[in-house]
């Protein structure tokens, strides 16, 4: 069944879930809106969305210093009450997010923070890449891709850019089947309060100086015994 924008909107209106979560649920249930509602509820996403408008001004500024002091992270994670901020579940979530930032080095918190000029530049670079690939097809005797297909290729690569550079859309380092947003939403459903990441900063020793590049993901995960 085709997943239309109208169907996604209907599901969002019913559950309050985010657009991408609603679309994903519909894809997984082959467009069955009743099953999609159940799926969102099972994942805690519907409950999380309903709490999203509530003020979260408490929380913690979590720090993470990688072994040897080579990477340092500060991240502010907010919740609604000081009581929840002191719980192990919330503290563990904040630590996991700090380690995520240390390991994967996101540039932005979410896609809304990415400047329009950055996306426009990426689109131009990706479009040129797509055109080069099309020229190679012609040289190899293959039928060139239509302009509409090239545009879809660029759109897909822009989505990949968001997933690689925006913290909330990154694959979670402890579970590749989840994004950071998925993990936060699960915590919201479990804890019962709105939770959000407000801001973060990451420092790398000698950043900007040419030096050997290490696999920081492997190092960070090794330090927590994963």
Question: How does this structure look, described?
Answer:
With 226 residues, the protein is an alpha+beta fold. It has 3 domains: 5-51, Helicase, Ruva Protein, domain 3 (Orthogonal Bundle), CATH 1.10.8.10; 58-110 and 166-223, Tetrahydropterin Synthase, Chain A (2-Layer Sandwich), CATH 3.30.479.20; 116-156. Helices cover 54% and strands 15% of the residues. It contains 10 helices and 5 strands. The strands form 2 sheets. Strands 1-2-5 form a 3-stranded antiparallel beta sheet. The longest helix is centred in the middle third of the chain and has 24 residues, at 116-139. The chain is flat. The mean pLDDT is 83.
Question: How would you describe this structure in keywords?
Answer:
single chain; 226 residues; alpha+beta; Helicase, Ruva Protein, domain 3; Tetrahydropterin Synthase, Chain A; 3 domains; 3-stranded antiparallel sheet; 10 helices; 5 strands; 54% helix; 15% strand; flat
Note the overall shape: flat
Number of domains: 3
Instruction: Bin the strand percentage.
Output: 5-15%
Order of helices and strands: HHHHEEHHHHEEHEH
Report the biggest beta sheet as strand number plus sense, adding barrel if it closes. Answer: 3 strands, antiparallel
Q: CATH class of the largest domain, please?
A: Alpha Beta
Give me the secondary-structure category.
alpha+beta
Calculate the terminal CA-CA distance, rounded to whole Å.
40 Å
CATH topology of the largest domain: Tetrahydropterin Synthase, Chain A
Compute the average pLDDT: 83
The level of helicity is 40-55%
Kindly provide the radius of gyration, computed on alpha-carbon positions and rounded to a whole number of angstroms: 20 Å
Q: What is the number of E strands?
A: 5
Number of DSSP helices?
10
User: Ranges with pLDDT <50 over ≥5 residues?
Assistant: none
Q: Can you list the strand order of the major beta sheet?
A: 1-2-5
Proper CATH architecture of the largest domain: 2-Layer Sandwich
User: CATH superfamily assignment of the largest domain?
Assistant: Elongation factor Ts, dimerisation domain
């Amino acid at each position: 069944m085709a997943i239309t924008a109208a169907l996604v909107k209907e599901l969002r209106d019913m559950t309050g879930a985010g657009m991408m979560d609603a679309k994903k649920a519909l894809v997984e249930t082959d467009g069955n809106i009743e099953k999609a509602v159940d799926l969102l509820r099972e994942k805690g996403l519907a409950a999380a969305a309903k709490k999203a408008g509530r003020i979260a001004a408490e929380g913690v500024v979590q720090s993470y210093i990688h072994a040897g002091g080579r990477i340092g992270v500060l991240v502010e994670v907010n919740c609604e009450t000081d009581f929840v901020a002191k719980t192990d579940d919330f503290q563990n979530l904040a630590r996991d997010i700090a380690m995520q930032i240390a390991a994967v080095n996101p540039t932005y918190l979410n896609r809304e923070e990415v400047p329009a000029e950055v996306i426009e530049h990426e689109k131009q670079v990706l479009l040129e890449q797509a055109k080069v690939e099309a020229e190679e097809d012609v040289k190899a005797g293959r039928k060139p891709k239509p302009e509409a297909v090239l545009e879809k290729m660029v759109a897909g690569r822009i989505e990949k850019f968001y997933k690689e550079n925006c913290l909330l859309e990154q694959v979670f380092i402890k579970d590749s089947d989840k994004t950071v947003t998925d993990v936060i939403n699960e915590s919201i459903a479990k804890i019962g309060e709105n939770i959000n990441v407000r801001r973060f900063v990451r420092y790398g020793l000698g950043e900007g100086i040419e030096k050997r590049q290490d696999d920081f993901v492997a190092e960070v995960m090794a330090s927590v015994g994963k």
